[in-house]
Automatic annotation (TrEMBL):
<dbReference type="InterPro" id="IPR004017">
    <property type="entry name" value="Cys_rich_dom"/>
</dbReference>
<feature type="domain" description="4Fe-4S ferredoxin-type">
    <location>
        <begin position="75"/>
        <end position="99"/>
    </location>
</feature>
<keyword id="KW-0408">Iron</keyword>
<keyword id="KW-0004">4Fe-4S</keyword>
<dbReference type="InterPro" id="IPR017896">
    <property type="entry name" value="4Fe4S_Fe-S-bd"/>
</dbReference>
<keyword id="KW-0677">Repeat</keyword>
<dbReference type="InterPro" id="IPR009051">
    <property type="entry name" value="Helical_ferredxn"/>
</dbReference>
<dbReference type="Pfam" id="PF02754">
    <property type="entry name" value="CCG"/>
</dbReference>
<protein>
    <recommendedName>
        <fullName>Glycolate oxidase iron-sulfur subunit</fullName>
        <ecNumber>1.1.99.14</ecNumber>
    </recommendedName>
</protein>
<keyword id="KW-0249">Electron transport</keyword>
<dbReference type="InterPro" id="IPR012257">
    <property type="entry name" value="Glc_ox_4Fe-4S"/>
</dbReference>
<feature type="domain" description="4Fe-4S ferredoxin-type">
    <location>
        <begin position="24"/>
        <end position="55"/>
    </location>
</feature>
<keyword id="KW-0813">Transport</keyword>
<keyword id="KW-0479">Metal-binding</keyword>
<dbReference type="Pfam" id="PF13183">
    <property type="entry name" value="Fer4_8"/>
</dbReference>
<comment type="function">
    <text>Component of a complex that catalyzes the oxidation of glycolate to glyoxylate.</text>
</comment>
<keyword id="KW-0411">Iron-sulfur</keyword>
């Protein structure tokens, strides 16, 4: 196939003529398993929005092959098509030939970050993201001025001028999804060990996440209450940091490995039956630790053992069964729509479990949206790095969710919740987005919405 390269003025593309290096390039056997049938195209969000073959799974696999064969260079013209991939893994679900695109794009992203010299502005934005988001303690310091920025109404004034979007669309995108910063953002209230209520069935570890810990601490508190109410003793090691999802998805190899090792060490002496996570993107990466640390002789086995214990909170509860009594959330039937996070649906094949749990709440009527399997555009930090495509997808997702007539949206990923909330606000809708663990917690405690 002829690969066309877009023209560009970026000097990086002129100077850089190298392809992939020898350190784990995309596996040619996996590339060859693609039979170019094109079934994946209609379910690929980047292809839907951009409409070019090279921004589809099949097109990107062609590019990987050509790079492996040394037929084209890793330059701006090629990298832009890898950058436009949301990593949503819808193509993995759709592909009838079982092409492991997840492994291919992961290998490619690590190659890109090692071998492609990004422009200064791109580098700066990425460095800001990778030094802040995986470090909750540093992010908290950064959030102090932003707390006053919101409190004093500067945020509304800046948004009204649209100035930030003119200066930097990426900074404007970051600002637009910034949730409300409260005093809770600066506290870690959960103790290290929380006893099970009633008879103890399991001893489980809980991972707090980074964005989840800062902006969605009520979700973590609800998760712990739901687990203890259902017979779990909960262990939360204080030394735990970031799960590595963000750097792993963006090809930051060494940072991802270091964070994975730190997480494994945090749980080393806890003697837990399972490690529970309530954020879809984190759960997918935690289950991949065996792959991330496959080249590390000291951690290879530990990583596999750790990954084998990881369970999404909903996956775990649906499997072991709820023992706590549930009560209605409202006095009349509640129309609820569950939004599938890609890293649960496509990454972990978890779709029935959240629905089964939510339907156990008395009075809940579950609605199904159009294009439920299509990404909302959040995709980790994608909505900050590729705001135009992300906005188009966010707008489509919210329209489809609203069209169900639901009065409440349930979402099990902090990134999706932020993206959906942003687009609900843009469409002038005041509908709450809650985590299924919060809904279960309310139902167990008899709290009405
Ligand atoms: S990735 Fe799968 S669905 Fe897509 S073109 Fe290749 S074989 Fe077909
Ligand atoms: S991961 Fe998502 S965006 Fe990327 S090629 Fe697959 S379907 Fe398209």
């Amino acid at each position: 196939m002829q690969i066309s390269e877009d023209s560009t003025n970026n000097t990086a593309s002129i100077k850089n003529l190298q392809g992939f290096d020898a350190n784990h390039p995309p596996d040619p056997k996996l590339i060859d398993s693609c039979v170019h049938c094109g079934f994946c195209l209609s379910t690929c969000p980047s292809y839907r929005v951009i409409g070019k073959e090279m921004d589809s799974p099949r097109g990107r696999i062609y590019l990987m092959d050509a790079l492996n064969e040394g037929e084209i260079a890793l330059n701006t013209a090629t990298v832009q098509h890898f950058d436009s991939c949301l990593g949503c893994l819808a193509c993995v679900t759709t592909c009838p030939s079982g092409v492991q695109y997840d492994k291919l794009i992961s290998a490619t992203r690590h190659q890109v970050e090692r071998n492609y010299p990004r422009s200064l502005s791109d580098k700066l934005v990425r460095q800001l993201i990778f030094s802040l988001f995986p470090n909750p303690d540093i992010l908290r310091i950064f959030l102090i001025p932003l707390f006053f920025y919101q409190k004093l109404g500067i945020s509304q004034a800046i948004r009204a001028t649209g100035l930030l979007k003119i200066i930097s669309p990426r900074l404007a995108a970051m600002e637009s999804i910034l949730p409300k910063i409260t005093l809770k953002t600066f506290q870690d209230n959960l103790p290290t060990i929380i006893s099970a209520q009633g008879e103890k069935r399991y001893r489980v570890g809980v991972i707090l996440g980074c964005v989840q810990r800062l902006f969605f601490s009520p979700v973590n508190e609800a998760t712990v209450r739901v687990l203890t109410a259902n017979g779990c003793e909960v262990v939360i090691p204080k030394s735990q940091g970031c799960c590595a999802a963000l750097p792993e998805h963006q090809g930051q190899t060494e940072q991802a490995k270091a964070l994975a090792r730190q997480m494994i060490d945090s749980f080393a002496d806890t003697n837990v039956d399972y490690v529970i996570i309530n954020a879809a993107g984190c759960g997918h990466t935690l289950k991949e630790y065996g792959h991330i640390l496959a080249d590390d002789p000291e951690y290879r086995e530990k990583a596999k053992n750790f990954a084998a214990k990881v369970r999404d909170a909903q996956e775990f509860l649906a499997t072991v069964g709820l023992t706590a009594k549930l009560s209605p959330l409202t006095d009349k039937p509640l129309n609820l729509v569950y939004q599938d996070a890609c890293h649960l649906l496509h990454g972990q094949k978890i779709s029935l479990q959240p629905r089964q749990l939510l339907q156990q709440i008395p009075g809940v009527k579950l609605k199904e949206p159009l294009d439920a399997a299509l990404c909302c555009g959040s995709a980790g930090v994608y909505n900050m790095l590729q705001p135009d495509v992300a906005d188009e997808l966010g707008q489509q997702k919210v329209t489809n969710l609203l069209n169900t007539g639901a009065e409440l949206i349930a979402s099990a990923n902090p990134g999706c919740a932020l993206q959906i909330t942003k687009h609900l606000q843009l469409q002038g809708k005041e509908i709450s987005v809650m985590h299924p663990m919060e809904l279960l917690d309310y139902s167990i405690r008899g709290v009405k919405l």
